[in-house]
Amino acid sequence: MKKIEAIVRASKFEDVKEALAEKEINFFTFYEVKGYGHQIGKSRSYRGTIYDVGYIARIKLEILVGMDFLDVAIKAIESAAHTGEKGDGLIYVSDLEKTINIRTGSIGSDAVNS
Questions:
Q1: Which of 3, 13, 77, 109 could form a disulfide with 66 if both were Cys (CB 3.0 to 4.6 A apart)?
Q2: Are 64 and 46 in contact (CB under 8 A)?
Q3: So what's the pLDDT on residue 3?
Q4: Does residue 17 come out as left (phi exceeding 0), alpha (psi in the -120 to 50 range) or beta?
Q5: If you ran DSSP here, which 8-state letter would residue 66 be given?
Q6: Given CA atoms 78, 2, 61, 104 in this order, what sign does their dihedral have?
Q7: Domains plus CATH for the chain?
Q8: What pTM does this model have?
Q9: Looking at residues 41-55, what average pLDDT do you find?
Q10: Distances from the Cα of 21 to the Cαs of 33, 70, 90, in angstroms?
């Protein structure tokens, strides 16, 4: 099993979600993240207080897939998240040593599919 972590523009999240659903990848975790990339950070002053507005609002997805869905999922994310501009995001892939479904006790790919 593999774990895909993708950081994408918040504005492209719905496109990525739909692209994954078209490939029958409907189970993943996502959350809002902030970070800095190649873009230069900016700060604004409001009523004497300086606010850092240079962060980049993004969505991070975590997807567990078997080897048969790995390339499909990566291509779906790449095509849906691509704008051609700096800040489109990144995709990380790592090995999962063991995956266990708490409810059923299933292991590996069965743990995700049960």
A1: 109
A2: no
A3: 96
A4: alpha
A5: -
A6: positive
A7: 2-113 (3.30.70.120)
A8: 0.82
A9: 66
A10: 22, 14, 20
